[in-house]
Design brief:
It is built from 12 helices and no strands. The chain is an all-alpha fold. Helix 2 (38-55) packs antiparallel against helix 4, helix 2 (38-55) packs parallel to helix 6 and helix 8 runs antiparallel to helix 9. The chain starts with a helix and ends in a 13-residue tail after the last helix.
């Protein structure tokens, strides 16, 4: 109970901000019956929460301490390099993904995930609440690291280098997968091919390489967080803190695999291409998610 109380105190303001931002976006969406800004607000949620979690750490910024207030914003040197690194990575990922998805829906006009939701205020509000939960859980390792004073964190080490390397590789994997699919769609619109679905590039090794990249980079952020969390006392109990932070990549993987990503797309494609032998052949030779070695069953 003491650990949970400490966790709530450390992360409560950040979580409150997350739900507040999504409430604003959700209110506009319900009124206009449009999901156009859903993914954009998701990105805004990650960016604002990441930066807020960094600057809301009183031990780093000195804000709300007794005596005269220090200059704001505080100098970069007030933060630990790990905090700056993890915050920058999350902001980069969110800005890239949010702008990519916003550009896509601006072209296509709607998102099939919201069919049956946009005209139902309660269900639509539920989708925005779910996004707030997603933002909270996915970047949990970052929020926890940012809540630990810089002076109490161990220096960067081999585990941080491993985490950064994994993150960069996963980010590149996701970006390339998205770009390949965008190029494939553009070529199809221009009449350069009549393929019903993409099977080339990274999409030859996984039916959802973009999702695999996203899960992998959030797992890498957890790796980056473990050095700080392993020596988090007295702010967090190290063992429980590491386990709690692991909820981030675990929740991301479960959500993508079984709720909003892979399962929905597989269901839609199976319905659309069930009589197409090319789809059956593609599914038989290509794993659902993990390249080359994953299960081929949806």
């Amino acid at each position: 109970m003491v650990y949970l109380a400490g966790l709530r105190t450390a992360l409560g303001p950040t979580i409150g901000l997350i739900f507040g931002v999504q409430a604003i976006g959700g209110a506009h969406a319900i009124i206009t019956k449009s999901e156009r800004f859903y993914d954009l607000f998701g990105a805004i949620g990650f960016v604002t929460a990441s930066i807020f979690s960094l600057y809301s750490n009183k031990a780093n910024t000195g804000i709300l301490t007794k005596g005269s207030l220090p200059a704001f914003p505080p100098p970069i040197s007030a933060f630990h390099p790990r905090q700056l690194l993890m915050t920058s990575l999350t902001v980069l990922w969110a800005a890239r993904l949010g702008s990519f998805l916003f550009a896509r829906i601006s072209k296509e006009g709607k998102d099939s995930r919201f069919d049956g939701l946009r005209d139902n205020p309660i269900k639509f509000a539920g989708a925005w609440s779910a996004q707030a939960v997603w933002i909270t859980l996915t970047a949990l390792p970052l929020y926890m690291v940012n809540s630990i004073p810089a002076a109490s964190q161990a220096g960067l080490g081999p585990r941080d280098a491993i985490g950064l390397g994994l993150w960069l590789a996963a980010f590149a994997y996701e970006v390339v997968a998205d770009q390949q699919k965008s190029a494939w769609r553009s070529a199809k619109k221009e009449g350069k091919h009549d393929e019903p679905f993409i099977t080339s590039g990274l999409w030859a090794s996984s039916r959802h390489p973009n999702y695999f990249g996203e899960i992998s980079l959030h797992s890498a952020e957890w790796v980056l967080a473990t050095t700080a969390l392993a020596k988090a006392a007295p702010y967090f109990s190290p063992g429980p803190a590491i386990a709690t932070a692991a909820l981030g990549p675990i929740a991301e993987a479960l959500l993508i695999r079984y709720v909003s990503g892979v399962s929905k797309q597989e269901e839609a494609k199976e319905k659309k291409f069930k009589d197409d032998p090319r789809w059956k052949a593609y599914c038989e030779r290509t794993p659902v998610l993990i390249p080359y070695v994953g299960s081929k069953k949806a």
